[in-house]
Amino acid sequence: MPARTWVPPGPYDLHRTLGVLRRGPGDPAFAVRDDEIWRACRTPEGPGTLCLAARAAEGHVAATAWGPGAPWLLERLPELLGESDDPAALTARHRVVHEARRRHPGVRLARTGLVLESLIPSILEQKVTSDEAYRAWRLLLQRHGTPAPGPWDRLRVMPEPRGWALIPSWEWHRAGVDAKRSSTILRAVRAAARMEEAAGMDLGDATRRLTAIPGIGPWTAAETLQRALGAPDAITVGDLHLPKIIGYALTGRRGTTDEEMLQLLAPYAGQRHRAARLILLSGLVPPRRAPRFPVGDIARL
């Protein structure tokens, strides 16, 4: 049970920094218990579980890890927690961004260094509601993942690439995943080594590497690389809600398009994802005019 501590270089918010790695409230690979964050991963060295806790009195984050992947996780702990991230690289050009950064000075961009871990759930989120995607991720890990090392048997490690490839078609259907998304995942895991190489690339090269797989477009690549690389400029384009939120927060207008969002974020070139993240933290969203999309369930078909 190896352990390590990390001293943040300034104000630090562990839960908001790592919260973006959680895929819904029932994510079998991520949990919060007694102010601790638990994360189960499939590392290049094998499965590992990481437990993190912010010790405010001591001024550090304490980490404990289990499993064959424990040394890998602890070695890369500073990168995961955002040590190499530079929040000061963003110059606030809007009052909303300035106020969000003032209220949340401890938010950094996490860098997991693991591509498939973020790519597969991002593919599951294509063209469906978040609830549908979270349910699919939960069911697939519960049925086909492996118990995470360590003391908490609730956690599951996602399957290795071959394990994803062996999931039968009816199990994808039972989880509510259509053939288009499951086929994209299968193409990605067949090129698993090439996908994981993207963790060592710059944003442009990594995006090209991921989008070379049919079914992976700019939206999925950005959602993946925001987490795997901690890329501050990986702005999500093609999202149903993000342009409307950005446009409403910065201009008060509704119905902002992707093109208009990119124009509004142009002053943050190189930091557009960070700016968007701060805007989301502001809580400024357009009032809802229509009911939520109904949650589909193809497993009933």
From TrEMBL:
A single BP term in Gene Ontology: base-excision repair, AP site formation
Transmembrane segments: none
Annotated keywords: DNA damage, DNA repair
One GO cellular component term noted in the UniProt record for this chain: cytoplasm
GO terms of molecular function: alkylated DNA binding; DNA-3-methyladenine glycosylase activity; DNA-7-methylguanine glycosylase activity
Organism domain of life: Bacteria
Keyword Manganese: no
PANTHER family xrefs: DNA GLYCOSYLASE, DNA-3-METHYLADENINE GLYCOSYLASE
Protein name: 3-methyladenine DNA glycosylase
